Amino acid sequence: MTQFSLMHQRRFLPFFLTQFLGAFNDNVYKNALVVLMTFQAARYTELSAGVLVNLAAGLFILPFFLFSATAGQLADKFEKSHLMRLIKLAEIVIMALAATAFALESLPLMLTTLFLMGAQSSLFGPVKYAILPQHLAETELVGGNALVESGTFIAILIGTIAGGVMIALPGGTVWVSVAVLVLAVAGYFASRGIPLAPAADAGLRMNWNPLTQTWRTIGFTRSNRTVFLSVLGISWFWFYGALFLSQFPGYAKDVLGGDEYAVTLLLAMFSVGIGAGSLLCEKLSGKHVEIGLVPFGSIGLSLFALDLWWASPAAGAMGEGLAIGAVLSQAIAWRVLFDLLMIGLFGGFFIVPLYALIQSRSAPSHRSRIIAGNNILNALFMVVAAGLGAGLLAAGVSIAQLFLMTAILNGFVALYIYTLVPEFLLRFIVWVLVHTVYRLQVTGDEQIPEDGPAVIVANHVSFVDALVIMAASRRPIRFVMDHHIFRWPILSFVFRTSRAIPIAPAKEDPAMMEKAFDTVAEALAAGELVGLFPEGRITDTGEMKPFRPGIKRIIERSPVPVVPMALRGLWGSTFSRKDGPALRKPLRRGLFNRIALVVGAPVAPDALRVDALQNTVAALRGDQK
Predict the structure, then answer these.
(1) Which residues form the Phospholipid/glycerol acyltransferase domain (predicted)?
(2) Residue span of the structural domain in which 403 resides
(3) pLDDT for 40-54, tens place per residue?
């Protein structure tokens, strides 16, 4: 099954349509209002169009600071599908107010409606992301988030275009009024199909003070270090995206020399890129939360932003007021569009795994409040981006130079986050390994327990066996490894970061061996997965060596299930010992070697026999070394 199969299921499709129509509606009204204020401000006020547009942006984002903390509490306290329907009913009322504002030609009422739309969106955000883990399996989270993110950006794109086109028609305010009301009603009817999602914490006592609850919500977000840094990563992406998007009008006009249609084209390429990158995440991640894609995404965000700076002509060099055909007739415009497409693509790789990670690792009892904290920080970062962009441009920095500064800053931010949480880089190294040197096929990974302790055992063929198994597992695994392997530069980083357990033979260092067994027992008592290669060494013949009794000693001390696995196809690869030491002939089989991991049914601790376990692993391996 692919992620698109979710679009045929009631547990996802009504929710997807609800959030898609909401995002579409927001942007129809918002852009219609921006266009109206830009070209007809004099009809309503003496304020300049530029001041009005910035005021509108501020009014839409202000509710995320005021109401997100309350929204997180509501989403944790009440059943989510009912809450969504109430929020969509509120949207109908707000859009009726918008239609009234257009009919009365009342600018204050139009801006009030925009503020209320922001409030409605801030209430919808926490429940939108918190409901997914209740209706989707862990293996579906990446695909579900990918569809939501791609759908959201496509909705933003077509909503922005539709709002601009309709308001420019004769009687444009009537067209927009009818459209937003129809979309709001359609969104409500879509929400009626969302299945029940029980309250996570029905006994929660509400705190209605936005200041104290906002601080408390940020505290919830910070309770899990990896989750909090993921939230910061998402917020950074919105900073990055807001800085780029806010420059599109000026870039299209001054750098590309185009008209208003060129602005839409830039937005379209960026949005399509994010949609495509989001949808590719499931295929690249193997259907589990693969945070190794996050560093990959950050690399692309910097590289293509650098190229965008490099490709950008000087302001005014391409002319001015050019039709879209004239802009596209110049080769440099295609390079710019490609860069924007790739920035969006790598942006999808960056944010989808982070959203899935937050959902999967947050405690269900306050998941919505953590997502509310994410929304607060997202809004804060976007406000800072707007202020920074305006300040730098006012100081004489060109738009292309702003892109360059963003690319460099993105690199430093990424390195900072990955230094604080090396797990991101660890998973990136593992992900690169199984997508360049190898092509990994996994069978039976559902046999790995979703929670609780277990011992993973497998045949030992190469120096990267543990990395291949880590790539296939939805859960972290602490491998018991020969202490000599910790001296290898890259492998040392990988195994230390994954908290591998070093071990030495009794005749070499008995104290280290005993400490290793103690650490294994502690890890299993804590509910972790421990990985072991019972042969005790990498094969130099391609055949399995006899299993040592260490596995029996571990299970006697900690009676937990044993999950047998077999690696296939690694014998003869770069990291195996075929024909001599490993790495003697780098890439001797080229790239993209097909390998496989086969997982067998767990063996109960009271049924464990070392010889039978070896026979099981051998049978799983078959004739493929």
Answers:
(1) 454-570
(2) 224-420
(3) 655 666 666 556 666
